[in-house]
Each structure stands twice: as C-alpha cells, then as structure tokens.
C-alpha cells in the first residue's frame, strides 16, 4: 500500500515551481507505553492540572498561556494573539542554495520525510532529482508549515527526493564544549587499532541486521504476564570500570577476534594488498 501523504507543498527555486506531496519516512518506535491505573479497579487515571497556590484543580476554561520573561513574571496571550505569533504557513519549500553531498554534518539532521511529485509535477520532479544526483548536490531550503519555520535539506535517493528537517545553528551545541583530552596516538597503536577495525569492516549498512532487543524482550515478558506467569527481574552484572594499558587491550581484542570471520570486503582488500606487496617485492 502506498504511504499516505501528510501535506502538500511546492519546491521553488528561481522561476521553477514543482508541486510535491510530503510523506513520512519514519515510523517512530518510542518503546512500549505503560499507563497509570487505579490499583483497586484497574481504571486508567486522567491527568489534571492543579494550582499549587490554592491546591485546586483548574479546568481548561480557566487556563491561559503565558511566557515567563523574568523569574516568576509572566505575560499572557489570548488564542487570537497566539495565532498572530505563528509563522504564516506557505507550504512552499524554497531552495536557498545547492551544496556538495556531505556538506551538512549529520548532527543537524532531526527527522526525515519523502517527497513525491504532485499532479502535474512528475517530469520536473524527476529532472531535478536526476540533475542533483548527477552533480552530487543537495539543497538547503526553508519550509513554513504548521505555524513554524523549518530549515530543511533535500537530497536524491533511489529516484526520489528525501527532505530532512534540520536543527538551526543555535540548537546544536559546539563540540568544543566537550573536553577531548588524551595524547596523540603512537604509530604502533594506530596500526593495531586499524587491524582491529578491519576485522569487522563492511561496505554497506543493512539496518535489518540490527533489532531493538530491549523492546523484543519486553514484549516477550508482557506476553508471559498476560498468560498469568510471574516475571522475576534478573540482576545484570555491572561492568567494573578499570584503566588498562591501551596496547595490551588492542592486542587482546585482536587475539580474541582471531577466530571470527572478517567481513568479505575486508578480507578481499587484505588479500589484494598482500598480492600487490608481493609483486612489488619481486619487481624490486
């Protein structure tokens, strides 16, 4: 079944306008949800807002929205005033510039959507995607919808366009806030580290290999509980933090993975490298 679109829009740059439909690219799995129930009758509880000043439950008819401009001081807004604060929704995806692939750090990516052509825009949509693919370019654009102004990135993928919602610059903390420390690695350490990485190197990301084991385990435990079985928590062994010699740790890791089959691509590259080295030695 085709994915349902959640909105319509139009990609614009220069005098070009391409009507598109926006489809969710991600089916978010936020884990399993447990609800608060009344113990005596197992009825789900409702959330209420209580004023701590007079300890009374406040109905929605008596609630107003406010902004705290100073400690304990608020300015309130009516629903009409809140609408005036919202960004006007244009549904337009206005391209500001085209950049090389990889120009935007992944840390700026927030969520993803698929863009599909809307009626009448099929040819222009295909042409834009093909040109971006051939040139190795992505597009940075602005998108106003649902009362907000979004920074987005468009990139071609499998004959389609993907729209990534990006964080703004003031939402991403600089890496310099995190202390790095440590000395520069010695050549021998780098060599061992490269060998260890080579043991488990692949060339293609296959997400189906990786499953949410926690959610799977919780579902299994819930199924047992539904059947009337008791669930007993198993205390996991807590690893002890200890500082060890880096070279010793790398050597031990390599020795421990010596019996494991390395990734096919890595094994092939190693074999080719060894053959090339042998030919160079014979030629010399």
> How do the strands line up in the largest sheet?
1-2-8-11-10-9-7
Largest sheet: 7 strands, mixed, barrel
Number of distinct helices: 6
The chain-level structural class is alpha+beta
Mean pLDDT across all amino acids: 82
CATH structural architecture of the domain at 7-28 and 88-171: Beta Barrel
Provide the succession of SSEs: EEEEEEHEEHEEEHHHH
Distance between the termini: 63 Å
- CATH topology heading of the domain at 7-28 and 88-171: Ku70, Chain: A, Domain 2
Q: Measured on Cα atoms, how large is the radius of gyration?
A: 28 Å
CATH class of the domain at 7-28 and 88-171: Mainly Beta
Give helix % range: 25-40%
Low-pLDDT sequence parts: 263-273
Choose one word for the global shape. extended
Strand tally is: 11
Work out the strand percent.
Answer: 25-35%
């Amino acid at each position: 079944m085709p994915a349902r679109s959640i909105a319509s829009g139009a990609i614009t740059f220069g005098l070009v306008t391409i009507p598109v439909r926006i489809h969710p690219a991600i089916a978010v799995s936020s884990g399993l949800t447990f609800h608060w129930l009344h113990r005596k009758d197992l009825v789900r509880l409702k959330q209420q807002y209580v004023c701590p000043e007079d300890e009374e439950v406040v109905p929605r008819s008596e609630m107003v929205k406010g902004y705290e401009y100073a400690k304990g001081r608020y300015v309130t807004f009516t629903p009409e005033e809140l609408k005036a604060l919202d960004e006007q929704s244009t549904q337009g995806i206005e391209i500001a510039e085209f950049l090389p692939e990889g120009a935007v750090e992944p840390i700026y990516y927030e969520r993803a959507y698929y863009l599909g052509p809307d009626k009448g825009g099929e040819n222009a949509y295909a042409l834009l995607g093909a040109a971006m693919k051939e040139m190795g370019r992505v597009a940075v654009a602005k998108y106003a919808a649902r009362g907000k102004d979004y920074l987005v990135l468009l990139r071609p993928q499998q004959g389609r366009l993907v729209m990534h919602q990006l964080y703004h610059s003031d939402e991403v903390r600089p890496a310099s806030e995190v202390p790095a420390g440590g000395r520069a690695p010695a050549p021998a350490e780098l060599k061992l580290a490269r060998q260890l990485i080579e043991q488990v190197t692949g060339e293609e990301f296959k997400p189906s290999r990786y499953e949410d084991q926690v959610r799977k385990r919780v579902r299994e435990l819930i199924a047992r509980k539904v059947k009337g079985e008791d669930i007993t928590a198993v205390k996991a062994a807590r690893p002890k933090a200890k500082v060890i010699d880096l070279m010793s740790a790398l050597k031990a890791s390599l020795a421990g993975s010596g019996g494991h089959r390395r990734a096919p691509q890595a094994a092939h590259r190693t074999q080719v490298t060894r053959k090339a080295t042998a030919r160079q030695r014979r030629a010399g």
